[in-house]
Recover the amino acids of this structure.
C-alpha cells in the first residue's frame, strides 16, 4: 500500500517539475493536458499541438480541439498513422493484421465493429508497456507509473531512476493512465450509456460508438507503438 502511495506521489512530482520548466508552452500546461485527459485524447507522440493549431490552447474550445485532431487524422492517415501501424508487421503480425482489418471497418463506417477490436489491441500493447509483456497481468495503472520513475535492481527491489526521462514519454504515460481511468472503469451495465471497455467487451453496451471514439482508440494505440520505435517528429500534411 505504501509503495502504491509513494509511486503515485512521485509520478505527480515528476509531472509537476517538467511542466513547471515548460510552462511557457501553453500546450504543455496542466490545464491543457487535463483538458485532453477529460476528453479522452492521447495525441501521437511528439505531435506539436502549437505548430498544428497555430494559436494558444486557451483560444480553442474542446470541440475545436476535437475537430482539429479528427482533421489531422484524416489528412495524415497514410503519412503518419499507417506508417506507425506498419512498423508492427513483423514484430506483431497477428495484431498488425487485426489493425488493418479494423481500419477497413472504420473506412466503411462500421464503428461498432471497430471498438471491441481496438480495446483488445490496446490491452495487448498495455501488457507490453505497463507489464513488460506479462500477458497474465490485466492491471496497468501501477505499471505505467513505475515506467516513469522507478526500476528494479538485481535483487528485484525498486530504485529511483537517475536518468532523465523525455517529457513526451511522461506526458503520454499520464494521458494513457487517465484514459484507462475514464474508459476502463467498472460500471453498472444497466445504466451506463457511453464508451466503456467492459460494456463493449461483454456485449452490454447501451451506446452507439462513433467515429470519434474509434479515432481516440487509434490515437492511443499508435502513441504506444511510437514509443518503442522512438519516432521523433510528425509533419502534418498541408490542407
Amino acid at each position: 500500500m505504501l509503495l502504491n502511495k509513494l509511486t503515485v506521489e512521485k509520478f505527480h512530482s515528476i509531472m509537476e517539475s517538467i511542466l513547471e520548466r515548460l510552462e511557457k508552452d501553453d500546450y504543455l500546461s496542466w490545464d491543457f493536458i487535463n483538458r485532453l485527459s477529460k476528453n479522452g485524447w492521447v495525441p501521437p507522440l511528439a505531435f506539436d499541438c502549437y505548430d498544428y493549431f497555430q494559436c494558444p490552447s486557451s483560444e480553442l474550445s474542446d470541440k475545436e480541439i476535437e475537430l482539429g485532431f479528427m482533421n489531422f487524422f484524416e489528412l495524415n492517415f497514410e503519412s503518419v498513422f499507417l506508417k506507425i501501424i506498419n512498423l508492427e508487421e513483423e514484430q506483431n503480425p497477428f495484431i498488425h493484421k487485426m489493425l488493418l482489418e479494423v481500419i477497413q471497418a472504420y473506412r466503411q463506417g462500421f464503428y461498432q465493429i471497430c471498438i471491441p477490436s481496438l480495446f483488445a489491441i490496446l490491452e495487448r500493447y498495455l501488457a507490453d508497456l505497463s507489464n513488460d509483456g506479462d500477458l497474465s497481468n490485466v492491471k496497468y495503472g501501477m505499471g505505467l507509473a513505475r515506467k516513469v520513475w522507478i526500476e528494479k535492481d538485481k535483487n528485484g527491489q525498486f530504485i529511483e531512476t537517475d536518468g532523465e526521462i523525455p517529457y513526451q514519454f511522461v506526458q503520454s504515460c499520464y494521458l494513457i493512465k487517465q484514459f484507462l481511468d475514464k474508459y476502463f472503469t467498472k460500471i453498472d451495465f444497466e445504466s451506463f450509456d457511453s464508451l466503456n471497455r467492459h460494456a463493449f467487451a461483454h456485449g452490454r453496451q447501451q451506446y452507439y460508438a462513433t467515429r470519434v471514439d474509434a479515432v481516440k482508440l487509434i490515437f492511443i494505440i499508435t502513441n504506444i507503438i511510437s514509443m518503442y520505435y522512438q519516432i521523433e517528429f510528425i509533419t502534418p500534411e498541408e490542407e
About this structure: Residues 62-86 form the longest helix (25 residues). Residues 157-162 have pLDDT under 50 and may be disordered. DSSP finds ten helices and two strands in the chain. The first strand starts at residue 150 and ends at 152.
